Amino acid sequence: MPEPRESEGVIASTGMGGAMDLATSEGESLEKTPGGPAGTGPQDKPRSLWSDAWRDLRRNPVFIIAGLVILFLVLISLWPGAITWMSPLKCDLAKAQQGSQPGHPFGFNGQGCDVYTRTVYGARTSVTVGVCATLGVAILGSVLGGLAGFFGGTWDSVLSRITDVFFAIPVVLGGLVLLSVVTNNSIWPVIGFMVLLGWPQISRIARGSVITVKQNDYVQAARALGASNSRMLLRHITPNAVAPVIVVATIALGTYIALEATLSYLGVGLKPPSVSWGIDISAASPYIRNAPHALLWPSGALAITVLAFIMLGDAVRDALDPKLR
């Protein structure tokens, strides 16, 4: 008579020197399923912070709305001729301060220029200044702050004192002083000023993030295995410390757009014949009672743009902050 087989259950190792009883069907399922110990199915794929963040962002209506607004602004910045057929510098004094007309939905400003066309072309200036200033600030601040947080010592102390000096300079007052002596009428002096006074904030954020990450066990293990400083920075620290920098930089982008408009309004930023929302707001202010439309449209475009970038930054912050999950 054949010996009875053990069909009631199977013994599965716990991976820690012990064992546990499983029903036969469960044991077979554990051996056959792609996600079990013998499989390599999609269930074995680890989920990263970035994949979880992207999944949350796709479900966030704030991110979707802000993203669509920003996408529209980028498109009209690259191809303004797609939605307007006039030149922003073409003016007719006979139409000065006139309201909406067929073909001119926003009316005319005090110089007889089409407000709709100038509002569309003003998006190119604002988006360009905001993006370039944010990239410059993020790169410079991240490099300096990351190195200070990683190496510490004298380098960290010197950088901390330098950032304290820059934090003591009022941004608008600094712009009035520095840009008033610049004769170049391009956007680059304005971008350079923003980078000069904006990098300390990103630097301090990057420094604190690097100091936190370099104390983790995986960084200490890499150091114990003989990894070089450059490898630890590029492979282990930077990918895990960059999230706070991205959040702050995204929110700051809208701030830089507002700062450019403020400096242009005060007459030290961009100057005519450049097209900027700040220039148009400044030019329309004296006759706000007679032609409020000339002030309303560029102001509204500026407010919507800044709000969209701030909303985008808030959504990214919520997605990248594990404490808010």
Q: How would you describe what is shown here?
A:
With 325 residues, the protein is mainly alpha-helical. It is 63% helix and 3% strand. It is built from twelve helices and two strands, in the order ββαααααααααααα. The protein has a two-stranded antiparallel ribbon. Helix 3 (61-78) crosses helix 12 (293-320). It is elongated, with a radius of gyration of 29 Å.
Order of H and E elements = EEHHHHHHHHHHHH
Mean pLDDT: 83
Task: Characterize the overall form.
Answer: elongated
Please outline the major beta sheet. 2 strands, antiparallel
How many helical elements? 12
* SS strand fraction: under 5%
The count of strands amounts to: 2
How large, in whole angstroms, is the Cα Rg? 29 Å
> What percent of the residues sit in helical stretches (DSSP H or I)?
55-70%
What is the SS-derived class? mainly alpha
Major sheet strand order: 1-2
Question: What labels describe this entry?
Answer:
325 residues, 3% strand, elongated
